[in-house]
């Protein structure tokens, strides 16, 4: 029988992993660092303080990893004023997401070396710079150099260590305490590279800019060109296409880690595309009637009810096509996806408005 204290610890960790990433849009650097640390120590907490079997948690662990990285990406839509940095980070995010989706399909570990998670550390680099400088001081060449250095000297060694060599750092140091000096030297080298990148920036401002700038989150709406208005009236737009790609990739990953799913990836993509188009059609209908969601919470609740209904219908129909899902687990993941879609819609609109009202977009200058 499972102890009550074990369940309290388990749900406290799970809820922390669900809620803490929601702080990333407002407090980017603290939010992502706490999420990263919690991702690293959650199973250690279970091993030290509970007697729970962890096999069933593995699926949720992977899904929550992808969830927090996706919220991190969405925060760049809300906050990042340097347009080139945003485009580069978006590429790194989707590159990693595609790699994880392929890995979950074929289970070849070397793929995680080919598709390293450079995105997360590039995000940390940008937000660390924003603490003391306006990110617009980061030129294209600096941003590319930062991404390349993180890719080569941080993520490739880390991905090789974890996924190919499958080494444990603690055991490695225990085997030879002098190995700790290697880590110290490596950390010093990384700090030296960071200094080299930032050495010629303008004088830093006073204090630390921990909270995201309110102006980046404000709904700035100015006069829009007719072409932009026409784009917004269309049901299938670049925004909807990206949303379908994003949620389809997430659904493929979730389906591979989710127990008792017998739907193929084509069926999943069709179902996801249908759900997103229904959600988008609802928003368009409200917009044309001159109405808008009063809050993110209101949109999330309404869309959740709609999407739960669609999943129940999907659960009824899919056996006709030789598929099946675990309804309880699927409802949990569809709520995660609904939250992601809700935040995407809200933050994409802010990004779109800010970019179209400031054509310079805060993009770093060429050197």
Describe this structure in words.
- There is one protein chain.
- Mean pLDDT is 80; it is low at 215-225 and 360-367.
- This protein has helices at 4-19, 28-49, 57-79, 83-106, 111-114, 118-130, 140-164, 169-175, 179-198, 214-217, 226-233, 238-257, 265-288, 296-317, 327-356.
- The protein has 367 residues and is mostly helical.
- It has a domain at 220-361 and 363-367.
- The longest helix is centred in the C-terminal third of the chain and has 30 residues, at 327-356.
What is the terminal-to-terminal distance? Answer: 65 Å
Q: Biggest sheet: strands, sense, closure?
A: none
Instruction: Estimate the helix proportion, in percent.
Output: over 70%
> pLDDT average, as an integer?
80
What would you report as the Rg, rounded to the nearest angstrom? 22 Å
List the total number of helices: 15
Low-confidence stretches: 215-225, 360-367
Helices and strands, in order, run as: HHHHHHHHHHHHHHH
Query: What coarse outline follows from CA principal-axis ratios?
Result: globular
Strand-residue fraction?
under 5%
Please provide the count of β strands: 0
Helix-strand makeup class: mainly alpha
List keywords for this structure.
single chain; 367 residues; mainly alpha; 15 helices
Summarize the structure.
The protein has a domain at 220-361 and 363-367.
SSE topology sketch:
Elements: H1 4-19, H2 28-49, H3 57-79, H4 83-106, H5 111-114, H6 118-130, H7 140-164, H8 169-175, H9 179-198, H10 214-217, H11 226-233, H12 238-257, H13 265-288, H14 296-317, H15 327-356
